Amino acid sequence: MDQTAETRPEPVRELTPEVSAALDRLADRFRGADGIGMQVLGLVGGQAENLLERLPGPVRTQLDQATRKALEVAFDAAHASRNRLRDGSDWLNTVATTAMGAAGGFGGLPTALAELPVTTTVLLRAIQGIAADEGFDPEDRTVRMQCLQVFAAAGPLARDDGTDVAFLTTRITLTGAAVHGLIARIAPRLATVLGQKLAAQTVPVIGAVAGAATNYAFTSYYQEMARVYFGLRRLARDSGLEVDVLLREFRLRVDPPKRIA
Fold first, then answer.
1. Distance CA 77, CA 71 (A)
2. Which residues touch 43 (CB under 8 Å, ≥6 apart)?
3. 222: buried, middle or exposed (CB in 10 Å: 19+, 13-18, 0-12)?
4. Alpha-carbon distance 150 to 254, whole Å?
5. Using CA atoms, how far apart are residues 111 and 102, in angstroms rounded to an integer?
6. Residue 66 belongs to what domain range?
7. Does residue 8 carry a pLDDT above 60?
8. Sign of CA dihedral 206, 62, 150, 147
9. Does residue 1 register a pLDDT over 50?
């Protein structure tokens, strides 16, 4: 006789149908964010893991530093732009970064590198707009850091199993060096992601097309991650449930328990 064992605890029972339905929608959104990135990999050829090998050695060794600098610039620049520019729709943000990616890829590696901090700033600005759309104040420093935390999600060219939820669980604390500490933790992982983006943009002949497609995928992906990140926090606020409870329920939906026969 087969015996079945759960590797995860049973779902919490006090969820209302409305909360459960909202979690289902967020989980569907989370899982659906991977498709575009896989299409980009098909366009440029190869796998995410070997894209970095296409970059010159000196560029690979400088990726961490370049990424950290891009995040530091973006953190201040994206916030400052809120006094001058209104939040754009997800679609408009995607159009803008897609055009940037085409321009970056057109000139090869030098222009792709120059485009990197600009695109990072636009992406962070878009994430701040999503936070505001979900009812959070981007003027609040904690919310600004939560926006930065969205970049801790695995990139669209790497995450193909729909189970990377660790970035959703990190608690933000405010200290004097909190922003720099957060950037220091995010930068190594994001450097790998941005390295894949740069490599895709330098594909011979189709660099501009690959750059546009890659930026389209990146913008769509991180906007979806931001919708999930702040959607969960809005659901916690509106339902009165703890974020940890909702995160556990969310994970059960995107990474169901494996049954052992």
1. 10
2. 206, 209, 210, 213
3. buried
4. 17
5. 10
6. 29-254
7. no
8. negative
9. no
Decide if 105 is inside a domain.
yes
The alpha carbon of residue 129 and the mean position of all alpha carbons in its chain are separated, in whole angstroms, by 14
Amino acid identity of 155?
G
The answer to the question of residue 8 being in a domain is: no
Please give the mean pLDDT across all residues of the chain: 80
CB contact at 8 A, 253 and 27 = yes
**What stretch of H or E contains 5?**
none
* pLDDT (tens digit per residue) in 100-143: 877 777 777 888 888 888 889 989 999 999 999 999 999 998 89
Q: Is 134 helix (H, G, I), strand (E, B) or coil?
A: coil
Q: Quick check: is 2 in a domain?
A: no
Contacts of 239 by beta carbon, 8 Å cutoff, 6+ apart: 16, 19, 246
* Tokens describing residue 106: 């057109």
What domain count does the chain have? 1
**DSSP label at 163?**
-
What is the identity of the amino acid at 5?
A
4 in a structural domain: no
Length of the chain: 261
Contact status, residue 15 vs residue 249, Cβ threshold 8 Å: yes
Question: pLDDT exceeding 70 applies to what percent of the chain?
Answer: 81
Question: How much is the pLDDT for 133?
Answer: 94
